[in-house]
C-alpha cells in the first residue's frame, strides 16, 4: 500500500474511486428521475384543471413520462448500489488480503493483547464501518442532496417566492441546531472520558471480583463503579437538559404538520396577492416535506463518514506495521546448534533488556535459562524463532544467522511450547496436526500418546474429531499436553520450552514433565523454568540476572560455586519443604 500524506480513508478508497464515482453519478441521475414524477403530477394537475376539454394526448404523455421516470429512477438507483457494493466488495477483499499479507510478515513478537485486539476490531468492526460508507452512504447522500436541490430549482423556475416558501422553517432549525452544536467537541471528549471511567470501573470490578469478595471488599469496589456511573449521569444530564428545549424546537421546525401549515399559510397569502396558482403552492409543499429526510440522511452520512475515517486510520496503522526483514539470499542452516554471540536487545525505545550474551547450545543437549522474574529469559529464548531481532550481536541456528534464514525454514527448525499454549478453533486432530498437516492417524495417536493426552482425547464425545471450545474443553495442563503432541508431530530439531508447566497442578505437572522428557530426546532444547527442581538434570544452566549471564554450568557445579543459583535453589527448597511440612501437618 502506498502511504502518502493523503487521509487514510482517501487512500483506502482510491483503488475503487472510479466505481464509487459511477455509483454517485447514477445515484444523482436516479434521484433526479424520481423528482420528475412529482413535477409531472403538478403539471398534470394544471392540464386537468385547465378550462375547456381535457387534453387527453397531453395527459397520456405526462402519464407515460411518470412511468418512464419511475422506471429510470429505479434502474439508476439499483445500478448505483450495484456499483458501490462492487466497489466495497473489491476494497474489502483487497484490504483483507493486504491485512493477511502484512500480518503474516510481522515479527511474532509484534502480537500482543493490544495488537491482537486491534486486528480483531479491524476485521470485525472497522471493515463494516467502511462498508456502510462506501456501499450505502455515498449514494444515499447524493440522492438526499439532489432530490430537494432539483425541487428547489423547479420552484425557482416557477417563482422565486415559492422556493423561499419551501424552506421557510429551515432558519429556525438552523439556529437551534447551531446552538446545540456549540462546544459539542469538548463536551463529547468529556463524556468519552467519563464513559471510559465507567468501563474501567466495570472491568476492575468484574476482573477483581474473586479477590475483592474474598477480602470482603465487594461493597467498596461496587461503590467505585457507582461513583463512576453517577459522575457520568451527572455530566450527561448537565449537558442534555439545556439541549432538550432546543432539540424540541428543531424537531418541531422539521415536523410534517408544521412544514405543511407554514407553506399552506404562506401559500394562501401568495394566492391572495395573485403571485402564484394553487398548484404551485402544492409543489412548494411537496418540496418542503422532502427536506427533513435530506437533513436526516446528511446527518447520518456525517456520522458514517466520521466512523469510517477513524476505522480507516486504525486499518492504515495496522497495514503500516513493519514486516520482519527477510534476506534476499536466504541460507540453509545445517544441524541444530543454537548460538548466541554477544547478543544485546532492547524493546522499542526501552532500556536494554539483554546485554552482551554469549551462549552455545549443542544438538541433543538441554540448556536451562533460570533467574529472577523479569531477568530477560523469555526475551532471550524468543530471539531464536525471531519473535524480535537482536539490537546487536548474532543469533545463529545451524551455523546461520537467523536473519538470513527464510522464516518458513526457521519455523521448520525451531518449535516452541509457551506458558499460555494456544489451541486454534477446529478439531483436536487439526490442532495436533498444525505443524504437519496431513499427518496420518497413527502418527497423530503416537504423538498424543507420547504427550500423555491420548486417553483424555478418547474420553471426549467425538474423540479426535471433537471441536475445541464446543465438545473439547481442556484444562491449562491438558492444553499444554496437546501443544506438546503438536510439537512432537512437527518434529522440529530445536525446541523452546517457556515455563510449560507454569499453570499446572502437581499431577498435571508430572504428566507434562513426562511428555517434555519424551519431546526433548535427541533435540536441542532451551528450557525456561521457575521451578529449579525440574531442570537439575539439564546439560547446562545459564543464570540470567539483569539481562546478563551471571553464572553458567551444571546444577552441581553451580551449587558448589555458591552464587545466585545456589541462593535461588536454597530459597526454593526451603519454601517447598516448609510448604510440604505445613501440608503434612494439615493432613495430620
Ligand atoms: N513486549 C515487551 N515490550 C516491552 N518490554 C517488555 C516486553 N516483554 C518483556 N518486556 C520487559 O523485558 C524485561 C524482561 O522480560 P522477560 O519476559 O524476558 O523476563 P523473564 O525473565 O522471562 O521474566 P518471567 O520469568 O517473569 O517471565 C522485563 O523488564 C519486561 O518488563
Notable characteristics:
single chain, 588 residues, alpha/beta, ABC transporter transmembrane region fold, Rossmann fold, 2 domains, 6-stranded mixed sheet, 4-stranded antiparallel sheet, 20 helices, binds adenosine-5'-triphosphate
Brief summary:
This protein is an alpha/beta fold and 588 residues long. The chain is built from 20 helices and 10 strands.
What would you say this structure looks like, in words?
The protein has 588 residues and is α/β, with parallel strands linked by helices. It has two domains: 1-105 and 112-168 and 290-321, Up-down Bundle (ABC transporter transmembrane region fold), CATH 1.20.1560; 338-587, Rossmann fold (3-Layer(aba) Sandwich), CATH 3.40.50. The chain has 20 helices and ten strands. The protein has helices at 8-13, 17-49, 56-103, 113-158, 160-166, 170-181, 184-207, 209-214, 218-253, 256-272, 278-319, 377-382, 407-413, 428-432, 441-450, 454-458, 476-490, 506-520, 555-561, 564-587, and strands at 338-346, 352-361, 366-371, 392-397, 400-401, 414-417, 494-498, 524-528, 540-545, 548-553. The strands form two sheets. Strands 6-7-8-3-9-10 form a six-stranded mixed beta sheet. The radius of gyration is 36 Å and the shape is elongated. The two termini are 70 Å apart. It binds adenosine-5'-triphosphate (ATP). Adenosine-5'-triphosphate is lined by residues 347, 350, 353, 371, 373-379. Residues 338-571 form the ABC transporter domain. This is ABC transporter, transmembrane region.
List the helices and strands and how they pair.
Blueprint: H1 8-13, H2 17-49, H3 56-103, H4 113-158, H5 160-166, H6 170-181, H7 184-207, H8 209-214, H9 218-253, H10 256-272, H11 278-319, E1 338-346, E2 352-361, E3 366-371, H12 377-382, E4 392-397, E5 400-401, H13 407-413, E6 414-417, H14 428-432, H15 441-450, H16 454-458, H17 476-490, E7 494-498, H18 506-520, E8 524-528, E9 540-545, E10 548-553, H19 555-561, H20 564-587
Parallel strand pairs: 3-8, 3-9, 6-7, 7-8
Antiparallel strand pairs: 1-2, 1-4, 4-5, 9-10
Helix pairs in contact: 2-3, 2-4, 2-11, 3-4, 4-5, 4-11, 5-10, 5-11, 6-9, 7-9, 10-11, 15-17, 17-18, 19-20
This protein binds adenosine-5'-triphosphate.
Residues 347, 350, 353, 371, 373-379 line the site of adenosine-5'-triphosphate.
